[in-house]
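User: Hello! I'm new to structural biology and keep hearing that structure can be predicted from sequence alone. Could you demonstrate with Protein RFT1 homolog? Please show me the input and the output so I can see what each looks like.

Assistant: Of course. The first part below is the input, the amino acid sequence of Protein RFT1 homolog. The second part is the output, the predicted structure written as tokens.
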Amino acid sequence: GGSADEDGQDVEYTLVRGPNACWRPLSLLRAFDALVSLCEYDNETRRILHLSLPFTLSALVEAVAENVVVALISLYVGTEAVAAYAVVDIVLEVTTELTMGVVDSESTLCSQAYGAGNSVLAGQYVQLCSVIYVLVQAPFVVAWSLFIYDILFWLGFDEETSQIGQDFARVAVFVQVAVGLGEGYHNLLEVIGREVYSAGIGIVEGMVELGMIAVATIVYRVDLITVAYIQLGVAVGFYGINVVITMYMGWMRPHLKGMVGSIAFKNRVAVAQVIKIAAPLAIGSILSYGEWEVLTLFAAHLGPAEVTTWAILGSIWDTFEASTEGIGDASEVRCAYHLGKGNPHQARIS
């Protein structure tokens, strides 16, 4: 194992033998000093907390709003519609978790570029991740647009529910693409210190979407396809609003050359970095969160009602996950920032 002493120099520890064995008093003293330094309320701790609070609040609002949407569909659209909505959502999550590795890599790479003072490179990473994300999503958009009916029917749902799910999926796949592109743009905002604005407009977007769906379902009694079009319209609309506001404020001007003023794919090193970071993130995301989707297949042997229940429980569980993921996301941004500045010791502390 390895650690660092008070001068920031790496120290290699051994388990039993040697001068740096873990049981020796000096090794224990270093470990205690490191623990004390981590507990200090310093600038880095304040920065991580400052980042994590808007991250957590935004994720919580999004998760709670999603649960309310499920409840509205169940109450005012119908049981077949809520079954189709919940199960299609969990099926789409399988490929979304895979492709979101590209978007997640953007946060790390932009943090490194920003820490190194290379605004153009940070902009190129946004362009690369956005284009690669769309390209990777394209075959899944086609697949889910064609085969959701067969999947739902195989899971035990009747023809009516399967057809509702198929019609909904043909719009929902584009919602996923729009949401992913929006998250990629938000990633750069969070890296450059505009995380409060990013969280704020994200919360407003969630509230607007929830309000529109509530009015549409309660007052106008719309069907599930209309709900999907509302989600798509809000996602695309707020992406455009976000771009206009950030450009007007001048926050993106240093990165504009890399984002739209160059062909980022000519930067082979940057392309290789995106693939290198995105691949393990995508695989890790599937391994970490894909078990819920796999268990849905097991629930299918119990019946369609159990599949629907399991899918809805997944939405509720996302709310609990959202309450803790802000700290991790904030630490990830700070670690990548310090690595970009060539400060691995501070990155380790973060």
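User: So the tokens describe the shape?

Assistant: Right, they're a compact way of writing down the 3D structure. Reading them back into a model, for example: The CA atoms of residues 208 and 260 lie 29 Å apart.
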